[in-house]
Amino acid sequence: MKIPVVAPLVAALLLAAGIATGSVDAADAPADDESPPSGRYLLMDANGRAVTNADFPGQFQLIAFGYTYCPDICPTTLVEAAAILKQLGDRAERVQPIFITVDPQRDTPQVLATYTAYFHPRIIGLTGSASLIDRAAQNFNARYRKVTEPGAPADRYHVDHSAGMYLLGPDGSYIRKFGYSTPAAEIAERIDALLSETHKADPTWSAPPPR
Ligand SMILES: [Cu+2]
Predict the structure, then answer these.
(1) Comparing C-alpha atoms, which of 127, 105, 111 is closest to residue 48?
(2) What is the Å distance from ligand 1's center to 51 Cα?
(3) For residue 19, how far is its CA from the centre of ligand 1 (angstroms)?
(4) Domain locations in the chain as residue ranges
(5) How many other C-beta atoms lie within 10 A of the C-beta of residue 138?
(6) pTM of the predicted protein model
(7) Which residues are annotated as a binding site?
(8) Which of 66, 177, 205, 210 suits a disulfide with 74, CB 3.0-4.6 Å?
(9) Are 84 and 48 in contact (CB under 8 A)?
(10) Distance CA 8, CA 4 (A)
């Protein structure tokens, strides 16, 4: 009579696992009161130049939100971004990887530039005022929250933030999100397929010079 007992238990475990997975997805799904993401932003690069989502005509933008003190998610994401560029080969010039800080207090333009260059020379870091970063995150339905442990010094904090990467199209408009832990090869294949469609539409298009 063990099987009838074990089977419901296994089913319950599977259900629990399913629910756990579902809740992760649900955290990234837009809530009812959210409008669809526009992907718009107005921020600043390491040289102090204003940068918007409309500044990369013809290129796909692969965007992650995070901060340089991040212990795991951001390093993993940027390693993945570099792997995507590598897999795209010659076509990588048609993709601009972007890292938007959610910690402008500690991530100065110089800190950001050093950090992104460590992962790949083509990744650009963007920062801005708290309100401009807030606005950008809202336009991607990305969330972040500064967390300071009780009694910790004011500069010792971490920032919980949405993980994953967002893709903007050649016209700077929002296409989709790739969830955290989507394999780099899968993202590269999706982008490669989109690049093929774009190329068919405009065979004369060539990538702009590097910034
Ligand atoms: Cu992070």
Answers:
(1) 127
(2) 22
(3) 24
(4) 42-201
(5) 16
(6) 0.81
(7) 70, 74, 161
(8) 66
(9) no
(10) 7
